[in-house]
Specification:
By secondary structure, the protein is of the alpha/beta class. Helix content is about 40%, strand content about 15%. It has one domain: 3-Layer(aba) Sandwich (Rossmann fold), CATH 3.40.50. A seven-stranded parallel β-sheet has the order 3-2-1-4-5-6-11, with helices on both faces.
């Protein structure tokens, strides 16, 4: 078994690569190591994957010829695409970065899978695709036609593109809509990392919508477990499926989409309180209005993923936040 992991120096990608190599899978990891956030953190993540069956290649998804050569040379059995230009707010100011990575890059992934008989493509979508949806929990059978950021729109586009290739070329694809992932080795642009840094430096933390927000916070180990399980569940054709009675999350083609989250919605202020307790410091709070592209609440219905994998997250927020704080103090020697 040989698996390609894109975004291998990223938060989720590096964790999945570490887990797969530890159980004996040959993994090729690629990443463009861009400077969207601290490259040294990305390099440190790669260093912890100390397995002889891991190969790292610096490569950009948008490099059409480079990607075509990679697929032809390596002949992967499966692909786990976790590379993307991330960040909702960043997409408002830097839209072209999302076109290059999330659209052009994803076409290159699909083409590589198509021409080299990849047996299963698993790719990262996002809870952001639910956009203006107010009904919770979010179900994969819901319409996701009203994204409110370019990032969300690019992830919705990935799902549509994947379906097209599943339909035209019988390429088995599985999309995973990630809900707020946190934990050790996390991204510096995400709330937990930013809050921790500012609290420890005695700075104010910006809290949007005056703290009245809820998120389905999902610990990194639980996310990795879900990915490991679903990559063995390869979608099959369903000749009896039809648009009128079916769900947007499945198809007559070998195509499926699942929510992958904690399955509960937590108050942002409770999340911050857990962080304050772990740090032993009360945060200085700057309450602000809702920001463009933000949503009030996320909450995943994960029953679909549980049905096919038995996946059930089991890390409570207090423990997950404590683990992050312990890692942060150790990594930054604070």
């Amino acid at each position: 078994m040989k698996i390609l992991i894109t975004g291998a120096a990223g938060f989720i990608g590096s964790a999945v690569a570490e887990r797969l190599t530890a159980i004996g899978v040959d993994v090729v990891g690629i990443d463009n190591l861009n400077d969207y956030y601290d490259v040294n953190l990305k390099l440190a993540r790669l260093k912890r994957i100390k397995h002889p069956n891991f190969t790292f290649i610096k490569l950009d998804l948008a490099d059409r010829q480079g990607m075509a050569d990679l697929f032809k040379l390596q002949q992967f059995d499966r692909v786990i695409n976790l590379a993307a230009q991330a960040g909702v707010r960043y997409s408002i100011d830097n839209p072209l970065a999302y076109a290059d990575s999330n659209l052009v890059g994803f076409v290159n992934i699909l083409e590589g899978c198509r021409h080299n008989k990849v047996k299963h493509l698993i790719y990262a979508s996002s809870s952001s695709v639910y956009g203006l949806n107010a009904k919770t929990p979010f179900e994969t059978s819901d319409s996701v036609d009203h994204p409110i950021s370019l990032y969300a729109a690019s992830k919705k586009a990935n799902e549509l593109m994947a379906h097209t290739y599943s339909h035209l070329y019988d390429l088995p694809t599985t999309g995973l809509r990630f809900f707020t992932v946190y934990g050790p080795w996390g991204r510096p642009d995400m709330a937990l990392f930013k809050f921790t840094n500012k609290i420890m430096n005695g700075e104010e933390i910006d809290i949007y919508n005056n703290g009245d927000m809820q998120r389905d916070f999902t610990y990194i180990d639980d996310i990795v477990e879900g990915i490991i399980r679903i990559q063995d569940v390869i979608p099959e054709k369903d000749a009896d499926w039809n648009v009128e009675e079916g769900s947007p999350a499945d198809s007559s083609a070998p195509y499926r989409v699942y929510n992958i989250g904690n399955g509960k919605s937590e108050k942002l202020m409770d999340y911050i309180e857990s962080l304050e307790l772990s740090l032993g410091i009360e945060a200085k709070k700057n309450f602000m209005p809702m920001q463009p592209g933000d949503v009030y609440k996320t909450y995943a219905d994960t029953s679909g993923l549980f049905k096919v994998t038995g996946y059930e997250p089991n890390t409570p927020i207090k423990k997950g936040v404590e683990n992050f704080v312990n890692w942060y103090r150790d990594f930054y020697d604070k």
